[in-house]
Design goal:
The complex is a heterodimer. Chain A has 3 helices and no strands. By secondary structure, chain A is mostly helical. In chain B, 74% of the residues lie in helices and 0% in strands. In chain B, helix 2 packs antiparallel against helix 3. The radius of gyration of chain B is 20 Å and the shape is elongated. Chain B starts with a helix and ends in a 10-residue tail after the last helix. The chains are: A mainly alpha, B mainly alpha. At the A-B interface, helix 1 and helix 3 of A face helix 2, helix 3 and helix 5 of B. Chain B: This is ABC transporter permease.
Chain lengths: 67, 250
């Protein structure tokens, strides 16, 4: 693979890590629907950003968030 | 309508994490799409069966962002807007609102306004990230045609989401509104095979072509005209239909 510019790569890595970290933090504090927490955690990690977006829109039980 | 109502709607976007999901969709696709376009030759370069006709340039990068955003992210935006604007008469909160408010404008307008503002802001941030990544990956490029296509698409996404949100407000169901909009989208895709009507379809505005010559105002107006009319009608219906009281079994 040809040389990847750092200026292009760094924002992607920072944003992706931040988004997955946010999803995991939210997962630890919220109740979930349809799947167990560990399954949502894996989905958030292996499919960035679709997995996290699906968790936040569908998997999160927003009416019962704690904290 | 006062500022407090708008703040409440803003907090609903923040607390339900809809805001994060929407911003992440725009920003991450702003990065990933351009990487995909730039390094596709490296990924398939070892295949003996596939031969690339030319090396991707800035147009391919931004076109990939526009394709992904016009389909996947537009779908995310319309679902979130519909969720934010639908009030079900079976939910406790929905019963609270529908049994106390008589004005559809007071009930739905703040929701629609905040949803439109949030989606417009997210689309702007996503476009800014895509423009930056395009510069970082492909070098300098003409800004005017890139901005023109991204602006047409951002307007189309906001209108598309507002159409769904207005339907959701009128029907009281986000799922039904999303299903209707998805059906209309598929219909437009089928109609887009007819070259004469293709410039007038919302799908053209949602996925505008990146052209080095840029979009003229007439072309942009043609592509968003149908969306403007449909969204205007849906908003008029949602904001003028009287709110019915909670239905009770006879």
């Amino acid at each position: 693979m040809s040389h990847i510019p750092v200026a292009a790569l760094v924002p992607l890595i920072v944003i992706a890590i931040g988004f997955v970290g946010f999803c995991w933090y939210d997962l630890s504090r919220s109740r979930v629907r349809y799947l167990p927490k560990w399954a949502w955690a894996i989905i958030c990690l292996i499919s960035i950003p679709i997995g996290g977006i699906i968790y936040l829109t569908v998997g999160r039980d927003s009416g019962t968030a704690r904290g | 309508m006062n500022g407090t109502v708008l703040r409440v709607e803003w907090f609903r976007w923040v607390r339900t994490r809809r805001l994060v999901a929407l911003a992440a969709a725009f920003v991450l696709f702003g990065c990933v799409s351009l990487f995909g376009a730039k390094y596709l030759p490296d990924l398939i370069g070892n295949s003996a069966d596939i031969k690339l006709l030319r090396v991707p340039d800035w147009r391919d990068g931004l076109q990939q962002y526009i394709k992904n955003t016009g389909l996947l992210v537009a779908a995310v935006a319309m679902i979130l807007a519909a969720q934010a604007c639908a009030i079900r008469d079976t939910d406790p909160v929905g019963i609270f609102y529908l049994s106390r408010e008589v004005s559809p404008i007071r009930l739905y307008l703040p929701r629609l306004m905040v949803a439109a503002g949030v989606i417009a802001a997210a689309a702007t941030i996503g476009a800014a990230v895509a423009l930056y990544e395009c510069w970082a990956l492909f070098g300098s490029y003409p800004m005017a045609p890139a901005l023109g296509s991204l602006a047409v698409q951002a307007v189309a996404i906001v209108l598309f989401a507002m159409f769904t949100a207005a339907l959701a407000a009128r029907l009281g169901s986000a799922g039904m509104a999303v299903a209707i909009t998805a059906g209309l989208y598929v219909l437009c895709l089928l109609l887009s095979t007819v070259p004469r009507i293709q410039p007038y379809l919302p799908t053209t505005a949602l996925q505008p072509a990146i052209d080095a010559a840029g979009w003229s105002a007439a072309e942009a107006a043609k592509s968003v005209l149908a969306l403007v009319i449909a969204t205007g009608l849906a908003l008029a219906v949602a904001l003028t239909t009287p709110i019915r009281a909670i239905k009770t079994p006879a």
